[in-house]
């Protein structure tokens, strides 16, 4: 018998706020965190805007010596995980540390370390490479550093499924608790690759928006959309087995009730055109949770602002919900914070939890007029205030990775 899983802690580092409180305040205000790239000279690049994390000082959020041995993607993960763990009120000294684990993913890890050390190899020779190059670079080090910093000795893994990484990590952490591998899991995603290689690489795919107007660059489902905006940050949550949480008198934000994960088996970058793969992930999540399409109040869409994603995800929602699709509120958090790649699912999961708490569904900022074939309620213009009981959140990654989580009001 599967055990029930609840959310008891939240932590975030984002382009519109470096704590959950700041981030959610920005979401409610419709704040857009997109602007000119400052992390390197992008004057020769086709794309010159991104959604950067601002005013983040690692030594204020963690041990200074430890921070020096982490790249930004790991620093963001540790900062967000510390916030989530403190928010949960868990005292690890009173817990079995082998029953508390970590699943935190990053789609890419550190491209910056590769750039820096390749330059050293070319200019000064291979002996000048940073001895810590590999542990700074590899994507599992976010999970490793979180485990070290919080003293969590249980299952410690990372899922790398491109832009679905954060959602798959939370889903796999959910499974670990359901099937008694753990009582507590710290899970989510992190990313930081606003650097020459990252911007050039995604530009080469023609995946990035070439807009120079930050307010009209990330415009999911809009007829004028022309690509996504690269973002960075981390979204980490604490999941806990229900009885374990109740026994210690935990604050419970919401219940995680369903998880669907599928593969398109179609194309290395394009989603399946009819939306069946992503639609099946939603159906699986709803079936596990015992929730009918008519009960879904809100879908936090992957909504990248690329032509293919938004059109095919619209088809996926119709495939999954049928006639109920026309009545559900759909939005995209990426309209405000850009696309955080492996961190997107973690941050957007937090939005879903806060939406349930506050009865608030944010607007899809910047988007004005939907494409003809994108014909759902994408929450353009203004937010929606209503009771929110059941939410789906979607993440779709290069390679055909589809992941959906169903979050519900805890009762």
Compact overview of the structure:
With about 400 residues, the protein is of the alpha/beta class. The chain is built from 13 helices and 14 strands.
Percent of residues in helices: 25-40%
Radius of gyration: 20 Å
Give the strand content.
Answer: 15-25%
Helix and strand composition category = alpha/beta
Q: How many discrete domains? A: 2
CATH-defined topology of the largest domain: Peroxisomal Thiolase, Chain A, domain 1
Report how far the terminal alpha carbons are from each other.
19 Å
Q: Helix count, per DSSP?
A: 13
Your description of this structure?
This protein is α/β, with parallel strands linked by helices. It folds into two domains: 5-247, Peroxisomal Thiolase, Chain A, domain 1; 259-408, 3-Layer(aba) Sandwich (Peroxisomal Thiolase, Chain A, domain 1), CATH 3.40.47. Helix content is 34%, strand content 18%. The protein has 13 helices and 14 strands. The protein has helices spanning 20-29, 64-68, 72-88, 111-124, 133-137, 141-150, 165-178, 196-204, 242-247, 276-289, 307-321, 334-337, 344-358, and strands at residues 5-13, 35-36, 49-50, 100-105, 156-157, 184-191, 233-241, 254-263, 298-300, 329-331, 360-361, 384-385, 390-397, 401-408. The strands form three sheets. A ten-stranded mixed β-sheet has the order 5-4-6-7-1-8-14-13-9-10, sandwiched between helices. The chain is globular, with a radius of gyration of 20 Å. The model has no long low-confidence stretch (mean pLDDT 98).
